[in-house]
Give the backbone structure.
Amino acid sequence: MKVKPGFKLRPLGNEFILVGEGVEQINFNKMITMNESAAYLWQQVMDGTDFDAERLAELLTQEYEVSHEQALQDAQTTIQSWLDAEIIQ
Amino acid sequence: MVRRRNYTVADLSFSIAAEEEYLALLTNYAPFEVETISSSLFQLTIGKVDGSKEKVSVFTDTSDDDMPRIEVYRVGEDWQLQISMYKESPVCAIIRANQDFSVATLQFDPNSAKFAIDNAAMLLYAFTTAHLGVLEMHASVTVKDGKGFLFLGHSGTGKSTHSRLWMEAFEDARLLNDDNPILRLLPNNEVRVYGSPWSGKTPCYINKNVPVGGIVKLNQAPHNEIRPLRLPEAYAYMLSSASGLKIVPEMMDALYKTIAGIIQIIPLYTLDCLPNVEAARLCESTVNI
């Protein structure tokens, strides 16, 4: 899995919004909001590196005090919501 | 004979040079004309664009059916913007500008002279002011109690109608601008709205400014209901209502900074509304505090 190019993560108060700002996302007009942990994951993979649920779970356990099992579940949910939002491929 | 005229809009200046027959069309700029300016955002000259150099397509902005279509090209380091009145109509204006849009030449179909000059000036104004805490908005603005209230929404959602309803509902309400006001986040964190020479179909070119009282996103609905917007929603609506060039990262960084600053000072609301005076009263009583 990889992030699609042309997105920019913008902090707003204690939330984040992902906006299509590059030429690749010129017609992207959805609003994707992210909480702190989702934004943290996005920042780790936004350079276009390949990732899967295992990799995101590993990143979560490095940053937050969660069990591997819980982290993997959260990572899978996150990937599904990113797929639904069409911001990764 | 080519003459240069100077204008100051929202305390920021630019100049337009053209044959007198074209300058005579620019009556909407008269309230903003000044004798001299100490510095300029951009200098726009009506003339011929050198078509011999190769242009590379960057993208085409067709965001809204009712809005002019803008094709964006690079010609070496320079920009070329080609404007059509509507999505399907032929190109009627070509702007060639240097890298930071401070020097530009405009060539147009003489039948569309006014449209071409206004759109070129608006684009250049937005592009050269983004880094100064300025937003060129797509909004209608009504002034009441010395404060400006901005109404946002897609073309055809009733921004002008809502402004008119405020004037029906409140004797002291006045229109400041009906389509493209200028919004500024000033260094002291004050947010002010300014009239401009660009006001859509309503001739309302007022060289005045007031502090902002509120910003409201309008939606047509079978009822009247208003609620505050959360920051991400407020940001998205402000961004889609502000002019800018999405592909220039520094410009988007600047718009983000300005919008994020403004929405943390001025609360945004969304109003589901009917085109009636009750909608104006509900809006005013909620927003004008």
Observations:
- The first strand of chain B starts at residue 2 and ends at 9.
- The mean pLDDT of chain B is 95.
- The helical segments of chain B are 20-23, 113-129, 159-169, 231-241, 249-263, 277-287.
